[in-house]
Specification:
mainly alpha; Endonuclease III, domain 1; 2 domains
């Protein structure tokens, strides 16, 4: 099976059977999405969604978060992973938004990556969901699923990202990101992939090996 056939099969299945695939993070604005994605690094969406209501109530916009103290932000996010660094990054991010972007979340990947605590994956997620940019964020789920299926042999998230964007049409990239994440979260799990109920086995390189 060629790489092209593998992509056609996987994307075709998702397109026909999973017409709706969205982020499981809860947010009401680009700013809230940015905060939630920053908190989700090496943390579950479930935990983030338990944390953000109180955080958003206390700091609904960049102005209020920029003026917050480390101690107050830490108290609200202490249950997520790496709360010390994330509290500092959140405050720094809000201050940078006010100083450089008029308090608005920028649409460009490079601009987003100038914000404290925002790497390429976070920038891609925000740009894709908020602005519909044709980019694919590669988190642990996307990385694992792409390599198992045979969509990429890349050994770094950036290499996998480039492979996916090379083969996935621009108009499908925003939803393809969610297809791969959700498949990895609920079917192609890290420790115990549920191959018996996986609809992609006929195109999966690892399953066919």
């Amino acid at each position: 099976m060629t790489v092209r056939q593998r992509y056609e099969g996987v994307l075709g299945y998702f397109r026909d059977n999973v017409p709706v695939a969205e982020s499981e993070l809860h947010f009401d604005s680009p700013f809230q999405l940015l905060v939630a994605v920053m908190l989700s690094a090496q943390c579950t969406d479930k935990r983030v969604n338990q944390t953000t209501p109180a955080l958003f109530a206390a700091y609904p916009d960049p102005e209020t978060l920029a003026a917050a103290t480390f101690e107050d932000v830490f108290a609200l996010i202490h249950s997520v992973s790496y709360p010390n660094s994330k509290a500092r990054h959140l405050i720094g991010m809000a201050q940078k938004l006010l100083a450089d972007f008029g308090g608005q979340v920028p649409s460009g990947i490079d601009d987003l990556m100038t914000l404290p605590g925002v790497g390429r994956k976070t920038a891609n997620v925000v740009a894709s969901i908020t602005w519909g940019e044709p980019v694919i964020a590669v988190d642990t789920h996307v990385f694992r699923v792409s390599r198992r299926l045979g969509l990429s042999r890349g050994t770094t998230p950036r290499a996998v990202e480039l492979d996916l964007e090379r083969h996935i049409p621009m108009e499908l990239r925003p939803i393809a990101h969610h297809w791969l994440i959700l498949h990895g979260r609920y079917v192609c799990k890290a420790q115990k992939p549920n191959c018996a109920s996986c609809p992609l086995t006929q195109w999966c390189k690892e399953f066919q090996a």
